[in-house]
Amino acid sequence: MEEVESSSLLRSTRLKLTGQLGPFFCAFFPYNKDMEKFRWCFIGVGGLANRVVKQLLSSDRHEVVSCYRRNQKKNEEWAKKYHSKAYESAKDAILAPGVDAVYVVTPHSNHLEYAKLALSLGKPVLVEKSFTVSEKEAIELFEYAKEKNLYISEAMWTFYSPVGQKVIEWVRSGRLGKITKAEGAFKVPLCARDRRIDPKRAGGALLDLGVYPMTYMYRCFGKPKSMKCFPLVKNGVDYRETIELEYEGFTARVLASFDGLLYKNYAVFAGENGILKVPEAHRTWHAFIKTKEGTEHFRFPTSYLHEFDVVSEDIKAGKLESEFVPHQATLDVLSMMDECRKQMGVIYPFEK
Known about the structure:
The chain is an alpha/beta fold. Helix content is 36%, strand content 25%.
């Protein structure tokens, strides 16, 4: 969703849907008209940062007070456009007056560096997916955050979403009966000049796209008994992979690709009693389940604002991790992707 609800609509929507999702939903819409703005430092000001900041600034709950990008000219242009302040070093941006938390939205290869810097300077951190390049790096960050007694979370907006959580609930509830099929796909036509095909910046379809359907399978079924990865690798980067995850009684399939011209983005779960479909799965604005009892739809617009609302409230409440995107989920999915990279033979230059 590109446009964010007004405060009055936000409040009425919160009250309306609380009855459907119970206390869980209240955390998504902490409403307080007198609440001070939560102030962010953005490390990275590329395409995703542009989409996020537009939603944050359309609300009265967030402000981006500082930013850093290695290209200082672009950094200053971004700061001027979004009423922030550009700094010549990440350290200075993080220590800028008023910063409540740091959002790391750089290429994957820099997540560990900047997140650890923020923690070392006493700031809680929200780190874009994939959280780090490997499980080893994630363990290092989580342990450091624990040592510093600071909040840290992966910015996996899919599972901060009410729809994402509803999908997990439906699958785990057993309403589908014995699972016979589970499949998730995220395919995006390749932009050749993109950092996505740069091995020095941890490019590849797996970390950028595959993390979404992999997380769906993990959040619904846990870690698989075994897995097989069938990739297309060129110049040290995975352009495409099909991943088979073996669970008790069925095989879940994950497809991620920059290869080709087709766009696909969905998740499907089928069982003896029915089927559950999630169109546009990574943004999870709509899902429906069809069983013998009938068809049930669940709709709610997912936005980056939901995610940032929850994280800011977590931080203000003194929490150290999110109940919606727990540390263990991040670690387990990264370990699954580590295994896939091992099978593909993809090792980034900075890992050698």
